[in-house]
Amino acid sequence: EDLRLSKLCAIKELINTAINSEERKAGFIRFEREAKILSELDHPNLPRVIDYFTLGDRHYLAMDYIDGYDLGSLVKEEKSNLTEEDIVKWSLQVCDVLHYLHTRNPPVIYRDLKPSNIMIRQSDDRVMLIDFGIARTLAPVEEESLTKTAIGTIGYMAPEQYKGKSEERSDIYSLGATMHHLLTGKTPLPFSLETLKHVRHDISPRLNAVVMKSLRLKPSERFQSVMDMKKALTGNIEIEMPVTK
């Protein structure tokens, strides 16, 4: 509870596991910089970061509390019974918020998109992207060595993310894997997702093509921006159909 504002909030704790003092200091500087950037984000599909602070080697983000349910829990209950219409509706909102993040200066890469990090707010059914524990800004060249670590969730991570080289198109891969999971009810395996139509015959050729294109192993073969993916989802641009790999 925020005693000053008399409202509930969510607290995210980030633990600095660096062994030596130099790494701990670098981790603190990175946390402070990134927390400041996150606190300046303002989008209707993002909970606000209200405050950030450090106690010892533990860092904290205070964020808006979201009253609702996450899609990870929903897909466990529904298995493969979620409708194409609902999944497209949610995915379009995710595209909007990813576009907002990717067009910040510097760009913010979310890096951990998956059903359990997408909440549907009870009051208005709005998608809320939660858990910014590993979101980060694209680092300048002199700090590249700090970013070369595979961070994310196996199955939803793009190949380049395993090498610690996340970029905007990495989030596009994760959105494709998330949509695949919601549509099939099957937790994605790394780089071996079946063509949607093989699992659910009722899926439209367009949605099959959009999801499978976003899951291409080479970033250059995916959508080059989330806005391109959104346009394909809404039928505003044509893509090759069907995409089978």
Q: What would you note in describing this structure?
A:
The structure is a single chain. With 245 residues, this protein is α+β, with helices and mostly antiparallel strands. Helix content is 38%, strand content 14%. The protein has nine helices and eight strands. It has helices spanning 21-39, 71-78, 84-102, 144-147, 159-162, 168-184, 196-199, 205-214, 226-233, and strands at 9-15, 49-55, 58-64, 68-70, 108-109, 118-121, 127-129, 136-137. The strands form three sheets. Strands 1-3-2 form a three-stranded antiparallel β-sheet, covered by helices on one side. Strand 6 and strand 7 form a beta hairpin. Helix 3 (84-102) packs antiparallel against helix 6, helix 3 runs antiparallel to helix 9 and helix 6 (168-184) packs across helix 8 (205-214). Mean pLDDT is 85; it is low at 137-148.
Question: Outline of this structure?
Answer:
By secondary structure, this protein is an alpha+beta fold. It is built from 9 helices and 8 strands. The longest helix is centred in the N-terminal third of the chain and has 19 residues, at 21-39.
